[in-house]
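User: Hello, can you help with two protein structures?

Assistant: Certainly.
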Amino acid sequence: MSKEKREQKKQLKLKKKQSKLEKKNKIWKENYGVSYNEVKDKISKKKQKGFPKFKKLLGFYKESKGGMILLILLGIVGGVISLAFPLAVQNIIDNLTLGNYGIIIWFALIYFGTNILTRSIFWLFYLTSSKIMNKVSHNIRVKLADSVCGTKTSKFDTSSSGNIINRISNDPSNFTGCIEQIIDYSVDVIMNLMFLVYAIYVNVWLGSLMICIGLYSFIINTFFIKKYYKPIAKRANILSDKNTSEYGELSRGIKDVRYLNIKSNFLSRITQTSLFRFKSNYNLTKIGQIFSSTRSYGMSILEVGFIVFGIYLVQANIVSIGAFVVVLMYRFNIYQVFNNASSVFEKLQQGEIAAERMCEILENDEYPKEVFGTNEVENITGKIEFKDVTYAYKDSEPLFENLNFVVRPNECVGIVGKSGQGKSTIISLITKLYDLKNGQILLDDNDITTLTEKSIRSNISTVPQAPYIFNQSIKENLLLAKPDATQEELENVCQKAFIHDFIISKPEKYDTIVGEGGITLSGGQKQRLAIARVLLKNSKVILLDEATSALDNESQEKIKKTINAMKKEKTIIIVAHRLTTVKDCDRIFVMEGNKIVADGTHKMLIKNCEAYKNLYQNEEE
């Protein structure tokens, strides 16, 4: 065959393969809402020899080394002792056929004693196993939560909550459950291996035939796991993440669902994802049953041959009736040696999938981590400086370029301008929620990239426009900022934030549970509680990003008095649309065209800055 023809044949083969893949993608998308490529890409990225992520997470078992050794020893001891079962049963049957009834009682007692002993050993085995697995699950969850806290903010802008929730909540249990089952299956292999040894001891050909039947079962199971299991399991995880996210969104956004009257639309979306999930799970069960049935049919045929061969051995006086009956009685235990071996492989696959998902969070891969410096600064003066700062969100035009300004210690500065100018982004950059591409941000003349996380975030507090209030009591929400705060301190900051009167009007007062996201509070109450939380933290720099936007005029005036009382003691930056919020600031930055076009007091800007004057007049109208 010429080189040209070989190339044509190769291209034709590739086209057929591509066509087949496109067809499969279409079927998967229509039936499950997930294309085959989405799953295939995830598998190919992780394709390495062995089970690398699984092995990595085994490090969490180091603390329980002694317990794991005890489990192995208990399994081996239990397996060896279990060999007494078939020996006792064989002797009972053989002596029964010979009429030696007296000796049967002794073998019955041996059987009884062995049963009590093995039950006791495995009671201790499973108790120890449960303690170790639950402890490891706990440690992995804590580590995952810590890793999520250290993940870059930009990742949360594009990730679904269900993806993260499932990885923290379900995957640790899935992983440790696989380990527990692998140990369980391995112990079963040891125990049942004793029955196989017994079968070979009775007759090597009889034992060999049972090995062939077991190997047939093992090959069928392993082929199914390798060929079908992993992609379908990956697909199930993706659909589970989507479903969990949608349920979470329904819970958090139930008010908006009702405001907009979109219940039917929202339920339709949830129903569709849930249907895809049902079809995916059913598909896995269906394929599994096909292989299971194929295995059972084949084994049934082989077992007929085994029985015929056993009868021949009995008739030829090569094997006693008791020995053959025991081997026949315990044949499924012998098959379990091979079934459990394939089950171990299946659990390794399941464990690797869970480990991969968790390692994506633990490692700096799909969930990149925040990076801080090593320079520790405890007490700062509060000076903030932007030097030629350029920033753009991913795949977007720069919000601002070469931005320069200085906020002096104990100065109160306002930032105003139309929406989309990057005002809130400035607040996010000061607290290092996002990384700079160009330029420098200095805190007390220290580049924030050189500072530790504690140096930045212990000295700076932020109140965003929509602060998150945790599903705890009001007191617990406040104590997050200062765990050792006294009741007097809590009441003091709440009075300054003008929310104390509201709190004591509730039956449970400071122990009132506010619901997820503070759902039982109004927007203004959330903002005032968030302000109280920041006041309790008592950091040197306070950033207020539209922090009074949900307040009425009277409440806003009260908060302004609180802010004014902190001036000259703290550095304060206020981002606001309402200019009344920043009128009393020492200086006001006016942003237009994604840059600062003016800087001065309210009176100066009204006289000299057209952009500020227009903002003020529009507000007055």
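That covers the first. Now for the second protein you mentioned:
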Amino acid sequence: MARAPLLQLTDISLTFGGDPVFEDLSLTVQQGDRVALVGRNGSGKSTLMKVMAGLVEPDRGEVVLNAGSHAGYMEQDPDLSGFATLGDFARAGLPEGEGYRVEMAAEGLKFDPDRQVATASGGERRRAALARLLAQAPELMLLDEPTNHLDVEAIGWLEDHLSQTRAAYVIISHDRAFLRRLTRATLWIDRGEVRRRERGFEGFEDWREEIWAAEDDARHKLDRKIKAEARWAVEGISARRKRNQGRVRALQAMRAERASQIRRQGAAAMALDTGPQSGKRVIEAQGISKAFGDRVILKPFDLRVQRGDRVAFVGPNGAGKTTLIRMLTGEIAPDQGEVKLGTNLEIAVFDQARAALDPDQSLWDSLTGDPDMRVSGRADQVMVRGQPKHVVGYLKDFLFDEAQARAPVRSLSGGEKARLLLARLMAKPSNLLVLDEPTNDLDVETLDLLQDILGEYDGTVLLVSHDRDFIDRVADTTVAMEGDGRAVTYAGGWTDYRAQRGEDQPAAPGEPRKLAQPSPLPVKPRLAKNGLSFTEKHRLEELPAIIQRLEAEIAKLSEFLSDPELYRTAPAKFRKATDALGERQAMLDKAEEEWLLLEEKASGN
């Protein structure tokens, strides 16, 4: 006998003073569901989650939670008024003797329950709200961007906790790796329609593109049919005095259908303008260190950053990533050592604290009030990469409508604030980008676009992020803050860094866990070789470790595929592992060929 849904939404309609957010929406959440809720910024994800939580009343329709069940909601901006400490807030409503649940969550999420609410940061408040929800252990957890302000260790703890819970949950998140690991179904909001797919976030983009391609094909067929019928209607006037009124009505109906179709929102028109070319050497740090009192932030550390490098800085919150970047860019001085900056640098900074945005300013004033963007004598123009542009037109490039131009910054969602900050950043020419947690609150499509833009950017990028997928897509070097002031440089992105440390990689639900790869053999110091550029020398030195990692992955995949029952019992896993084996073999062949060519070039052959 089928169990009743945990949550049932039936014929929901909701309007906020304009176009409907949802109309005639119905969906269910089953017991034990693990659901990704995805969609563009502003599509209504958080609103739908609040409807599920009973915090927003729909204009029409019914929301039914299974009798005896509870839904818990983690909001992005929790109200802690009336509580002295974060722990007081997190423990509120718990039965006596179960406060230990908060202590356990606080340890995993890395916040101090004794911290006074008045002095707590926004990130600490959000972590307290998440701990409160986890401690209450409701049958349905509604999580709105739970990984924001969490470092990688805390994200890993949360992943493990959610993978073991028996509760159902719905997650809004920009963190692809997090969604891939945890979800088994996907709800996609697109122009007020919600589609459900009984698979996790893995493969979501392919599914979305298939739907859009089918939609475009149907629209083109309808356009062609309208054009043909319209030609018949016009020609029929002269050919016949009495036209087929049924065909005329059908044409009118087709035109009405076409007019009612809502076009997809385009991607933000983001672009970066590389300023004058910097010198080949951008940053040379030798023996730099830093301490605040007895707390050592950085032990002596060397780093060379060349023009065009993409360097990611990873590590726990408070490890000193931002401090290190501020030393590397000359904003603060190291206690020891020296930082030499290259010539002709023009630096642009994306600040995770959004300090560049005044919450009481309008979006219009936020742009026109920036001295670097102001056009002399024009209150409605901004300078965008050397050219004047109307402020509303530039805001539209970043998916803001005209009505938002005079709205205060405080009215924006987290993702909209991030887009506004990117609009300010991208208006100015630069050749060194400093991006401190740029991915927080951005939707998947905007992240894809930002990644593409960074790939085409001719300048240099310093990136602080806890988004493992984004680091893999962008970085070619990773600096890991490993505790006790130690900073270690690794070639490649997040996955390469973890492999070189021999650490396990998280697996997607139902997939075999990736085994730890052995650490690469140490590369002996070598003299500069004739005929190689600096980049080629660096590549030649890192290739043996890459080859060794690929060989280890091929061995593990071959072992996994050696099970004669695998194809019969798990055909999907068999196909995926087979594809991965072929991919790794091709990568190994390419790496070995590249190593041979560089070795021959270095030897003068």
